[in-house]
Amino acid sequence: AIGYGGIQLWKLLPRVKEEYQKNLKPAETTVALPKQSPQNTNKKAAGGVLVDGMDNCLIKFSRCCTPVPGDDIIGYITRGQGVSIHRRDCENYLRHPHSMEEDGRWIPVSWADEIDDTYNTNITVVSTERQGLVLDVATILNALNSKVRSLNARDTGDGLSLVAVSLEVHSLSELQSIINRLSGIRGVSQVVRNGASQKDQQ
C-alpha cells in the first residue's frame, strides 16, 4: 500500500510506535487507553474512485478506455504511478488480466457515492461520407451544452467518415444521452466509445 501510494508513511508511524510500546511494557504497567474509532477508509475518494478500501490512493484514468462514473471499472497497479483505472470492457484489461506477469496487479475499485467532477472520455461517430456531417455533430453537442475538448473528422476512403470527439461528462447516463442524440444524425451508423473490445461494440 505504501509502495503505490495507498497509505502515507506519516499516517502509519503512530500506529507502529503504539504497537512497539505496548509490546515492550510489562503487563502490570500497561494502561488501557480508549480505543480510537477506525478510520473511515471510504471518506475520501481520489478522483471519485475508491481503491480497494484505501484512503487518498494515487490514481490516474487510463487513456485507452477513459472510464466515467457509472462504468464497471477495475484498477491496475502501475510501476511508480499509482493505480490506473480501466473499464472492464477495455481491450487492455480483457487481454491481460490472467497472464502470469500481470497476476495480482489488477485490484477491485469502485466509484464513490457522491461525485461532482467531470471526466474526459472519447467517442467516435461512424457515418456515411457526406457534406455537413461535422456541422451536424457540432450542432447536437452545442444544443446539449456538452463541453467538447476536441473534434476531428476524416474520411476512410471507402465511403465512410469518422468523427472523433473528446468531451467531458459527469456520468455514464449523460454520455449515453449524448450518444443517443448523435446516433440520430442522418447517415450515422454507430457511435462507439474508444477502448471497448470489438465484441462489446457489436
What does this entry show, briefly?
With 202 residues, this protein is α+β, with helices and mostly antiparallel strands. 24% of the residues lie in helices and 28% in strands.
- Are there runs of 5+ residues with pLDDT below 50, and where? 27-43
Q: Globular, elongated, flat, extended or rod-shaped: what is the shape? A: elongated
C-alpha Rg (nearest Å): 23 Å
DSSP strand content: 25-35%
> Averaging pLDDT over every residue, what do you get?
82
Structural class: alpha+beta
Largest sheet: 4 strands, mixed
Strand order of the largest sheet: 2-4-3-5
| Element string (H = helix, E = strand) | HEEEEHEEEHEEHEH
DSSP summary, beta strand count: 10
Number of helices: 5
Distance between the termini: 39 Å
Give the % helix: 10-25%
Q: Which structural traits does this protein have?
A:
202 residues; alpha+beta; four-stranded mixed β-sheet; four-stranded antiparallel β-sheet; 10 strands; elongated
Q: Would you give an account of this structure?
A:
The protein has 202 residues and is of the alpha+beta class. Helices cover 24% and strands 28% of the residues. The chain has 5 helices and 10 strands. A 4-stranded mixed beta sheet has the order 2-4-3-5, with no helix packed on it. A 4-stranded antiparallel beta sheet has the order 8-9-7-10, covered by helices on one side. A hairpin with a 4-residue loop joins strand 8 and strand 9. The longest helix is centred in the first third of the chain and has 16 residues. The chain is elongated, with a radius of gyration of 23 Å. About 8% of the residues have low confidence.
